[in-house]
Protein backbone atom coordinates (compact mmCIF):
# COMPACT_ATOMS: atom_id res chain seq x y z
CA UNK A 1 0.00 0.00 0.00
CA UNK A 2 1.06 3.61 -0.57
CA UNK A 3 3.17 5.35 2.09
CA UNK A 4 5.43 8.41 2.44
CA UNK A 5 7.85 6.99 -0.15
CA UNK A 6 5.03 6.94 -2.70
CA UNK A 7 4.05 10.47 -1.70
CA UNK A 8 7.51 11.68 -2.71
CA UNK A 9 7.05 9.92 -6.07
CA UNK A 10 3.59 11.46 -6.58
CA UNK A 11 4.12 14.99 -5.38
CA UNK A 12 7.84 15.39 -4.76
CA UNK A 13 8.25 17.48 -7.92
CA UNK A 14 5.66 20.07 -6.81
CA UNK A 15 6.79 23.13 -4.87
CA UNK A 16 4.78 24.48 -1.94
CA UNK A 17 3.69 27.33 -4.19
CA UNK A 18 2.14 24.83 -6.60
CA UNK A 19 0.71 22.55 -3.90
CA UNK A 20 0.36 23.91 -0.32
CA UNK A 21 1.57 22.21 2.84
CA UNK A 22 -0.56 19.22 3.85
CA UNK A 23 -0.82 16.55 6.54
CA UNK A 24 1.66 14.22 4.80
CA UNK A 25 4.28 16.98 4.76
CA UNK A 26 3.65 17.12 8.50
CA UNK A 27 4.49 13.40 8.79
CA UNK A 28 7.67 13.92 6.78
CA UNK A 29 8.81 16.88 8.86
CA UNK A 30 8.07 14.98 12.07
CA UNK A 31 10.33 12.16 10.79
CA UNK A 32 12.98 14.74 9.88
CA UNK A 33 13.73 15.55 13.54
CA UNK A 34 14.81 11.93 14.11
CA UNK A 35 17.87 12.49 11.91
CA UNK A 36 21.19 13.46 13.57
CA UNK A 37 22.04 16.84 12.05
CA UNK A 38 24.84 17.37 14.57
CA UNK A 39 27.62 19.42 12.96
CA UNK A 40 25.42 20.16 9.94
CA UNK A 41 22.68 22.47 11.30
CA UNK A 42 23.43 24.65 14.31
CA UNK A 43 21.12 25.88 17.07
CA UNK A 44 20.50 29.36 15.68
CA UNK A 45 17.34 30.52 13.92
CA UNK A 46 18.74 33.39 11.86
CA UNK A 47 21.22 33.68 9.01
CA UNK A 48 22.82 30.34 9.90
CA UNK A 49 19.87 28.42 8.40
CA UNK A 50 21.09 25.69 6.02
CA UNK A 51 19.34 24.92 2.71
CA UNK A 52 17.32 21.71 3.08
CA UNK A 53 19.03 19.86 0.18
CA UNK A 54 22.51 20.80 1.43
CA UNK A 55 21.82 19.57 4.98
CA UNK A 56 20.27 16.29 3.82
CA UNK A 57 23.04 15.59 1.28
CA UNK A 58 25.71 16.25 3.92
CA UNK A 59 24.06 13.72 6.21
CA UNK A 60 23.82 11.25 3.31
CA UNK A 61 27.57 11.66 2.72
CA UNK A 62 28.27 11.05 6.41
CA UNK A 63 26.16 7.88 6.33
CA UNK A 64 28.05 6.63 3.26
CA UNK A 65 31.38 7.22 4.99
CA UNK A 66 30.22 5.80 8.31
CA UNK A 67 27.23 3.43 8.03
CA UNK A 68 27.34 3.00 11.83
CA UNK A 69 25.44 6.30 12.02
CA UNK A 70 22.32 4.38 11.02
CA UNK A 71 22.41 2.65 14.41
CA UNK A 72 20.79 5.86 15.63
CA UNK A 73 17.87 5.40 13.23
CA UNK A 74 14.89 4.16 15.22
CA UNK A 75 13.00 3.15 12.04
CA UNK A 76 15.83 1.08 10.62
CA UNK A 77 16.35 0.64 6.88
CA UNK A 78 13.26 2.65 5.98
CA UNK A 79 14.73 5.69 7.70
CA UNK A 80 18.03 5.27 5.85
CA UNK A 81 16.36 4.89 2.45
CA UNK A 82 14.04 7.80 3.14
CA UNK A 83 16.98 10.09 3.90
CA UNK A 84 18.54 9.41 0.50
CA UNK A 85 15.17 9.83 -1.19
CA UNK A 86 14.66 13.24 0.49
CA UNK A 87 17.95 14.43 -0.98
CA UNK A 88 16.48 14.09 -4.48
CA UNK A 89 13.08 15.78 -3.94
CA UNK A 90 12.49 19.24 -5.50
CA UNK A 91 9.47 19.92 -3.22
CA UNK A 92 11.67 20.86 -0.27
CA UNK A 93 14.48 22.50 -2.26
CA UNK A 94 13.53 26.05 -1.19
CA UNK A 95 13.22 25.14 2.50
CA UNK A 96 15.96 25.74 5.06
CA UNK A 97 16.79 24.01 8.34
CA UNK A 98 17.73 25.81 11.52
CA UNK A 99 17.60 25.56 15.30
CA UNK A 100 18.85 21.99 15.55
CA UNK A 101 19.46 20.90 19.13
CA UNK A 102 20.17 17.43 20.49
CA UNK A 103 20.54 17.00 24.25
CA UNK A 104 21.04 13.90 26.36
CA UNK A 105 21.28 14.71 30.07
CA UNK A 106 21.64 11.65 32.26
CA UNK A 107 21.50 13.67 35.48
CA UNK A 108 18.10 15.13 34.54
CA UNK A 109 17.08 11.91 32.78
CA UNK A 110 16.29 13.93 29.66
CA UNK A 111 16.43 13.17 25.94
CA UNK A 112 15.47 16.15 23.78
CA UNK A 113 16.00 17.07 20.13
CA UNK A 114 14.31 19.45 17.70
CA UNK A 115 14.79 21.13 14.35
CA UNK A 116 12.89 23.92 12.59
CA UNK A 117 11.99 23.94 8.90
CA UNK A 118 11.58 27.36 7.28
CA UNK A 119 9.24 27.29 4.29
CA UNK A 120 9.11 30.37 2.00
CA UNK A 121 5.83 32.31 2.40
CA UNK A 122 4.38 29.63 4.72
CA UNK A 123 4.45 29.00 8.48
CA UNK A 124 7.67 27.52 9.87
CA UNK A 125 7.42 23.92 11.08
CA UNK A 126 8.94 23.34 14.54
CA UNK A 127 9.61 19.59 14.72
CA UNK A 128 10.23 17.80 18.02
CA UNK A 129 11.94 14.41 18.02
CA UNK A 130 10.27 11.40 19.57
CA UNK A 131 12.08 8.92 21.76
CA UNK A 132 15.41 7.89 20.26
CA UNK A 133 17.37 4.69 20.80
CA UNK A 134 18.92 5.81 24.11
CA UNK A 135 17.83 4.06 27.31
CA UNK A 136 17.74 7.45 29.08
CA UNK A 137 15.13 8.57 26.56
CA UNK A 138 12.97 5.54 27.36
CA UNK A 139 13.35 6.12 31.08
CA UNK A 140 12.18 9.71 30.60
CA UNK A 141 9.09 8.35 28.85
CA UNK A 142 8.36 6.14 31.85
CA UNK A 143 8.75 9.21 34.06
CA UNK A 144 5.66 10.65 32.35
CA UNK A 145 3.57 8.46 34.65
CA UNK A 146 5.13 10.14 37.68
CA UNK A 147 5.63 13.82 37.07
CA UNK A 148 3.57 16.86 36.21
CA UNK A 149 6.21 17.70 33.60
CA UNK A 150 9.29 15.86 32.40
CA UNK A 151 12.49 17.80 31.56
CA UNK A 152 12.01 17.43 27.78
CA UNK A 153 8.60 19.13 28.03
CA UNK A 154 10.13 22.10 29.87
CA UNK A 155 12.90 22.20 27.26
CA UNK A 156 10.28 22.15 24.48
CA UNK A 157 8.57 25.26 25.88
CA UNK A 158 11.91 27.10 25.91
CA UNK A 159 12.73 25.94 22.40
CA UNK A 160 9.39 27.02 20.91
CA UNK A 161 9.67 30.39 22.66
CA UNK A 162 13.19 30.91 21.28
CA UNK A 163 12.06 29.95 17.77
CA UNK A 164 9.09 32.32 17.93
CA UNK A 165 11.36 35.16 19.02
CA UNK A 166 13.54 34.79 15.92
CA UNK A 167 11.00 33.67 13.32
CA UNK A 168 8.37 35.96 11.82
CA UNK A 169 4.81 35.02 11.01
CA UNK A 170 2.78 31.95 11.78
CA UNK A 171 4.17 28.72 13.22
CA UNK A 172 3.24 25.05 12.91
CA UNK A 173 4.61 22.64 15.48
CA UNK A 174 4.46 18.88 15.62
CA UNK A 175 6.20 15.60 16.11
CA UNK A 176 5.83 11.86 16.23
CA UNK A 177 5.48 9.82 19.44
CA UNK A 178 7.00 11.77 22.34
CA UNK A 179 7.73 14.53 19.81
CA UNK A 180 4.00 15.08 19.34
CA UNK A 181 3.57 15.21 23.11
CA UNK A 182 6.31 17.85 23.32
CA UNK A 183 4.66 19.89 20.55
CA UNK A 184 1.31 19.94 22.35
CA UNK A 185 2.93 20.71 25.71
CA UNK A 186 5.09 23.52 24.28
CA UNK A 187 2.10 25.08 22.51
CA UNK A 188 0.09 24.86 25.73
CA UNK A 189 2.58 26.51 28.04
CA UNK A 190 4.34 29.08 25.90
CA UNK A 191 3.32 32.72 26.24
CA UNK A 192 -0.13 33.66 24.92
CA UNK A 193 1.52 35.97 22.38
CA UNK A 194 3.26 32.90 20.93
CA UNK A 195 0.08 30.81 21.13
CA UNK A 196 -1.72 33.32 18.93
CA UNK A 197 0.85 32.75 16.19
CA UNK A 198 0.48 28.96 16.16
CA UNK A 199 -1.62 27.78 13.23
CA UNK A 200 -1.65 24.01 13.91
CA UNK A 201 -0.22 21.55 16.42
CA UNK A 202 0.33 18.04 15.00
CA UNK A 203 0.24 15.10 17.38
CA UNK A 204 1.27 11.98 15.46
CA UNK A 205 0.58 8.91 17.62
CA UNK A 206 1.80 10.74 20.70
CA UNK A 207 1.08 9.84 24.34
CA UNK A 208 -1.19 12.14 26.32
CA UNK A 209 -0.79 13.95 29.62
CA UNK A 210 -1.66 14.05 33.26
CA UNK A 211 -5.12 15.49 33.92
CA UNK A 212 -3.55 18.65 35.35
CA UNK A 213 -2.33 19.50 31.82
CA UNK A 214 -5.53 18.81 29.89
CA UNK A 215 -7.60 20.67 32.50
CA UNK A 216 -5.42 23.80 32.36
CA UNK A 217 -6.61 27.03 30.78
CA UNK A 218 -3.45 27.21 28.65
CA UNK A 219 -4.15 23.79 27.13
CA UNK A 220 -7.76 24.79 26.46
CA UNK A 221 -6.45 27.82 24.54
CA UNK A 222 -4.87 25.60 21.88
CA UNK A 223 -7.02 22.47 22.03
CA UNK A 224 -9.02 23.44 18.94
CA UNK A 225 -5.90 23.66 16.74
CA UNK A 226 -4.49 20.23 17.69
CA UNK A 227 -4.58 17.73 14.82
CA UNK A 228 -4.19 14.28 16.35
CA UNK A 229 -3.56 11.04 14.43
CA UNK A 230 -3.29 7.46 15.70
CA UNK A 231 -3.07 4.11 13.84
CA UNK A 232 -5.91 1.60 14.13
CA UNK A 233 -4.02 -0.51 16.68
CA UNK A 234 -2.94 2.52 18.73
CA UNK A 235 -1.28 1.95 22.08
CA UNK A 236 1.16 4.85 22.49
CA UNK A 237 -1.23 7.50 21.14
CA UNK A 238 -4.03 6.64 23.56
CA UNK A 239 -2.01 6.56 26.77
CA UNK A 240 -2.93 8.93 29.62
CA UNK A 241 -5.32 11.84 29.02
CA UNK A 242 -5.17 11.97 25.24
CA UNK A 243 -6.65 14.34 22.69
CA UNK A 244 -10.32 13.37 22.36
CA UNK A 245 -10.77 14.41 18.75
CA UNK A 246 -8.38 12.23 16.80
CA UNK A 247 -8.32 10.61 13.37
CA UNK A 248 -7.55 6.92 12.96
CA UNK A 249 -5.02 6.12 10.23
CA UNK A 250 -4.79 2.79 8.44
CA UNK A 251 -1.44 1.04 8.92
CA UNK A 252 0.11 -1.79 6.91
CA UNK A 253 1.70 -3.21 10.07
CA UNK A 254 0.30 -5.07 13.07
CA UNK A 255 0.41 -4.41 16.80
CA UNK A 256 3.03 -2.04 18.18
CA UNK A 257 4.72 -1.86 14.76
CA UNK A 258 1.87 0.42 13.67
CA UNK A 259 3.61 3.16 15.66
CA UNK A 260 6.06 3.37 12.74
CA UNK A 261 4.94 6.30 10.52
CA UNK A 262 6.42 4.57 7.46
CA UNK A 263 3.60 2.04 7.81
CA UNK A 264 0.80 4.63 7.61
CA UNK A 265 -1.19 4.30 4.41
CA UNK A 266 -1.84 7.22 2.09
CA UNK A 267 -3.95 8.21 -0.83
CA UNK A 268 -2.72 11.23 -2.77
CA UNK A 269 -1.86 13.98 -0.31
CA UNK A 270 -3.88 12.59 2.56
CA UNK A 271 -3.82 9.58 4.83
CA UNK A 272 -6.36 6.76 4.66
CA UNK A 273 -8.72 7.07 7.60
CA UNK A 274 -10.91 4.40 9.18
CA UNK A 275 -13.84 4.83 11.61
CA UNK A 276 -12.18 3.71 14.86
CA UNK A 277 -9.30 1.96 16.56
CA UNK A 278 -9.52 -1.80 16.88
CA UNK A 279 -11.12 -3.70 19.74
CA UNK A 280 -7.66 -4.96 20.66
CA UNK A 281 -6.37 -1.38 20.90
CA UNK A 282 -9.22 -0.45 23.25
CA UNK A 283 -8.54 -3.56 25.33
CA UNK A 284 -4.81 -2.88 25.67
CA UNK A 285 -5.28 0.78 26.53
CA UNK A 286 -8.00 0.15 29.10
CA UNK A 287 -5.87 -2.56 30.70
CA UNK A 288 -2.77 -0.34 30.84
CA UNK A 289 -4.71 2.55 32.36
CA UNK A 290 -6.30 0.32 35.00
CA UNK A 291 -2.86 -1.08 35.77
CA UNK A 292 -1.40 2.42 36.23
CA UNK A 293 -4.36 3.45 38.40
CA UNK A 294 -3.71 0.43 40.63
CA UNK A 295 -0.36 1.89 41.72
CA UNK A 296 0.23 4.95 43.87
CA UNK A 297 2.99 7.37 42.88
CA UNK A 298 5.55 5.82 45.24
CA UNK A 299 4.97 2.34 43.81
CA UNK A 300 5.24 3.64 40.25
CA UNK A 301 8.54 5.35 41.10
CA UNK A 302 9.93 2.20 42.73
CA UNK A 303 8.87 0.09 39.74
CA UNK A 304 10.58 2.42 37.22
CA UNK A 305 13.76 2.71 39.27
CA UNK A 306 14.00 -1.06 39.76
CA UNK A 307 13.32 -1.80 36.09
CA UNK A 308 16.03 0.57 34.86
CA UNK A 309 18.45 -0.55 37.55
CA UNK A 310 18.18 -4.05 36.10
CA UNK A 311 18.77 -2.67 32.59
CA UNK A 312 21.78 -0.68 33.83
CA UNK A 313 23.30 -3.72 35.59
CA UNK A 314 22.98 -5.59 32.30
CA UNK A 315 25.08 -2.75 30.76
CA UNK A 316 22.39 -2.00 28.17
CA UNK A 317 22.73 1.62 27.04
CA UNK A 318 20.55 1.73 23.92
CA UNK A 319 17.93 -0.24 22.04
CA UNK A 320 20.60 -1.39 19.60
CA UNK A 321 22.20 -3.31 22.47
CA UNK A 322 19.08 -5.47 22.44
CA UNK A 323 18.93 -5.94 18.68
CA UNK A 324 22.66 -6.67 18.29
CA UNK A 325 22.37 -9.80 20.41
CA UNK A 326 18.86 -10.28 21.71
CA UNK A 327 19.42 -13.66 23.36
CA UNK A 328 22.62 -12.61 25.06
CA UNK A 329 21.17 -9.39 26.45
CA UNK A 330 17.94 -11.05 27.53
CA UNK A 331 20.09 -13.50 29.49
CA UNK A 332 21.97 -10.56 31.03
CA UNK A 333 18.68 -8.98 32.09
CA UNK A 334 17.57 -12.20 33.76
CA UNK A 335 20.95 -12.55 35.47
CA UNK A 336 20.78 -8.90 36.63
CA UNK A 337 17.40 -9.59 38.19
CA UNK A 338 19.28 -11.83 40.62
CA UNK A 339 21.14 -8.77 41.93
CA UNK A 340 17.89 -7.07 42.95
CA UNK A 341 16.89 -7.36 46.61
CA UNK A 342 13.97 -9.58 47.64
CA UNK A 343 11.74 -6.61 48.46
CA UNK A 344 12.13 -5.24 44.93
CA UNK A 345 11.52 -8.66 43.41
CA UNK A 346 8.28 -9.02 45.35
CA UNK A 347 7.26 -5.53 44.27
CA UNK A 348 7.89 -6.35 40.60
CA UNK A 349 5.93 -9.57 40.90
CA UNK A 350 3.03 -7.75 42.55
CA UNK A 351 2.95 -5.05 39.87
CA UNK A 352 3.03 -7.48 36.96
CA UNK A 353 0.37 -9.57 38.68
CA UNK A 354 -1.83 -6.46 38.76
CA UNK A 355 -1.25 -6.03 35.01
CA UNK A 356 -2.27 -9.61 34.27
CA UNK A 357 -5.25 -9.27 36.59
CA UNK A 358 -6.46 -6.14 34.80
CA UNK A 359 -6.06 -7.93 31.46
CA UNK A 360 -8.01 -10.94 32.68
CA UNK A 361 -10.88 -8.79 33.94
CA UNK A 362 -11.07 -6.88 30.65
CA UNK A 363 -11.09 -10.02 28.49
CA UNK A 364 -14.70 -10.59 29.55
CA UNK A 365 -15.72 -7.34 27.93
CA UNK A 366 -13.79 -7.63 24.69
CA UNK A 367 -14.14 -11.32 23.83
CA UNK A 368 -16.94 -13.83 24.29
CA UNK A 369 -15.21 -15.78 27.03
CA UNK A 370 -16.60 -15.92 30.55
CA UNK A 371 -13.84 -15.78 33.13
CA UNK A 372 -14.14 -15.15 36.86
CA UNK A 373 -13.47 -11.57 37.87
CA UNK A 374 -10.36 -10.85 39.90
CA UNK A 375 -11.06 -8.30 42.59
CA UNK A 376 -8.61 -5.42 42.62
CA UNK A 377 -8.44 -2.34 44.78
CA UNK A 378 -8.12 -0.03 41.82
CA UNK A 379 -9.31 3.52 41.39
CA UNK A 380 -11.98 4.34 38.84
CA UNK A 381 -10.80 4.98 35.30
CA UNK A 382 -12.99 7.31 33.30
CA UNK A 383 -12.47 6.89 29.56
CA UNK A 384 -15.68 7.63 27.74
CA UNK A 385 -14.46 6.35 24.41
CA UNK A 386 -13.66 2.87 25.73
Poorly predicted runs? 369-386
Neighbour order of strands in the largest sheet: 1-2-3-4-5-6-7-8-11
Principal-axes geometry comes out as globular
Helix-residue proportion: 40-55%
Radius of gyration, Cα only, in angstroms?
Answer: 21 Å
Order of helices and strands: HHEHHEEEHHEHHEHHEEEEEHHHHH
Strand content: 5-15%
The major pleated sheet works out as: 9 strands, mixed
- Overall structural class, as computed from helix and strand content, comes to alpha/beta
Task: Outline the structure in words.
The chain has 386 residues and is of the alpha/beta class. It has helices spanning 4-11, 23-32, 52-65, 76-86, 135-142, 151-166, 178-189, 192-195, 211-214, 217-222, 279-293, 297-313, 319-324, 326-337, 342-366, and strands at 50-51, 96-105, 110-118, 124-128, 171-176, 198-204, 226-231, 246-249, 266-267, 270-271, 273-274. Strand 2 and strand 3 (110-118) form a beta hairpin.
Descriptive keywords:
386 residues, Rossmann fold, 2 domains, nine-stranded mixed sheet, two-stranded antiparallel ribbon, disordered C terminus
Give a short synopsis of this structure:
This protein has helices at residues 4-11, 23-32, 52-65, 76-86, 135-142, 151-166, 178-189, 192-195, 211-214, 217-222, 279-293, 297-313, 319-324, 326-337, 342-366, and strands spanning 50-51, 96-105, 110-118, 124-128, 171-176, 198-204, 226-231, 246-249, 266-267, 270-271, 273-274. With 386 residues, the protein is an alpha/beta fold.
